[in-house]
Amino acid sequence: MSIRGKAAIVGVGQVPTGKYPERTALEQAIDVCMQAIKESGLDRSEIDYLFPTSHFASGRFNTDLIFSGLVEELGLAGTLRGNMMCCSGGASSSMQMKTAVAYIASGMAKAVLCVHTEKTGTGLSGPDVIDFFSTTGINSDWETPYGMHFSPVSGTIMQRYMHETGTTEEEMAAVCVSNRKWANLNPDAMFKDKELTIEKVLSSKMISTPMRSLESNMLADGAAAYLIVNEELAAKCETPVWILGEGSCVTHFALSQEPDMTRFSYKKAAEEAYAEAGLRPEDMDLWEIYDSYPQFELIALEELGACGRGEAGKLFLSGETAPGGKYPTTTNGGMLSQGHTAAGGGHAILVETYRQLAGKAGERQVKGAKYAVETGTGGTYMDAQVCVLGNVK
Amino acid sequence: MSDTYKKPLPEIRPWTKPFWDGTREGRLMLQKGKKSGKLIMYPKKYSPYDMDEEMEWIEASGKGTIYTYSIVENNAPSFMAEDVPFCVAIVELEEGVRMCTNIVDTPFDRISIGAEVAPVFDKVTEDITLVRFKVV
């Protein structure tokens, strides 16, 4: 069975990403869900299922989300058929969407609301955040004892990728600059008001060689939601964005066991997604890549077919991925510039994909965009989740 | 060796015990599938290659090369703070499997992808001897 065109995103919600100590996780969640429902124009009683994803800053609030903690606040009690936490780290957004589409395509659901809310910007202290994320997604027997944590995860991958492809540090830094140019046009981005240059990136503090601090993301508070519905409900909505194809592959838990950390499995996942969509890389107008560190945008662009192996760095350096370029990439600014909200980087990129394809991306709107390829990945890049979306079926 | 070793330690599980027994004796042991003939690192309860195959243990030569590495200079987690700067690496053993480790007893400017390494058995507690490597 193909999921092509069986379900559409019809509304999204997002609060600005950054440090907002006064904004609680609950309030953020309520606000983004209500935005998504209102944008769709549908009655909330149509929603069958609510899929919250994991929340890291508070164990208590995470448990609330598991036990229908949003249902009363959203006025869904009595009409909702199921509340299920759906999480896979940074791939959560992709997995929520794919699970929602499967529920809809099978006829089990007609409308599914997916939500993420996080307080990793102000809900935990700085050292606590470093310690928490230092063990999250890392193998406790075979990697943590050697001090492997998120920075050398990125450092080791970047080192190997540069070694194999000849990508230069200027090209790596150019990814961060491209992302920042998009973030400068995004009112929801954490770094919307700060400009960035290659020189600034390359003079920033070394964190874990060859990765510098401005090549590392910044943890933030944020929340996002999206409403996915069946064809019948989508027909009543103004700007449905259709899910046209998906591909997936999980390759490892321990990073040392990843067969190829300069490619991961994006190619396999992308080929599945393009085939289901009946489209080719040349048809894509947007490259909405889950980043977290710059090398992942390079790897994904190459493996998704935007350019050849080792050519992505030159594409970023040429400006073709930035606003006005031929390969608009990670157009919300990504986790590097829009902000990193734990599992929420994927939600932000999916909200952006919807906004671009619905023609609602404001100053950063890519004119005439019809099709987008979107990615998510969790842990130490344990999986490749690829999706092709379009504003036409 | 120290009784006050405070860093995270691996848990010894029934199917990983032969590995840790080996490192205590200065031997790097690898699991091998008896039917598939394939080496398995890190050790598993069941073979990832054949659910029904039995596994045996063989001693690795200890020779390997650096597949990739990173030197942590800042923002390390608190349990590694006193070690900064330190080198985390993934080493590819001569036998073809890879493992996460540290490069120690080596000036940082001698660490590079492809550099040949040899094991350094580091007895951190009575039970656990971690396998780190040095460039040879």
Describe the structure.
The complex is a heterodimer of chains A (393) and B (136). Chain A has 393 residues and is α/β, with parallel strands linked by helices. Chain A has a domain at 7-123 and 220-234: Peroxisomal Thiolase, Chain A, domain 1 (3-Layer(aba) Sandwich), CATH 3.40.47.10. Chain A is 34% helix and 17% strand. Chain A contains 13 helices and 11 strands. In chain A, strand 10 (371-376) and strand 11 form a beta hairpin. In chain A, helix 6 (169-183) packs across helix 10 (294-303). The model of chain A has no long low-confidence stretch (mean pLDDT 97). Chain B has 136 residues and is mainly beta. Chain B has a single domain (17-135), classed as OB fold (Dihydrolipoamide Acetyltransferase, E2P) (Beta Barrel). In chain B, the strands form 2 sheets. Chain B has a 5-stranded antiparallel sheet. In chain B, strands 2-1-3 form a 3-stranded antiparallel sheet, with helices on one face. The model of chain B has no long low-confidence stretch (mean pLDDT 96). Classes of the chains: A alpha/beta (393), B mainly beta (136). The interface between A and B is large, with 39 and 36 residues.
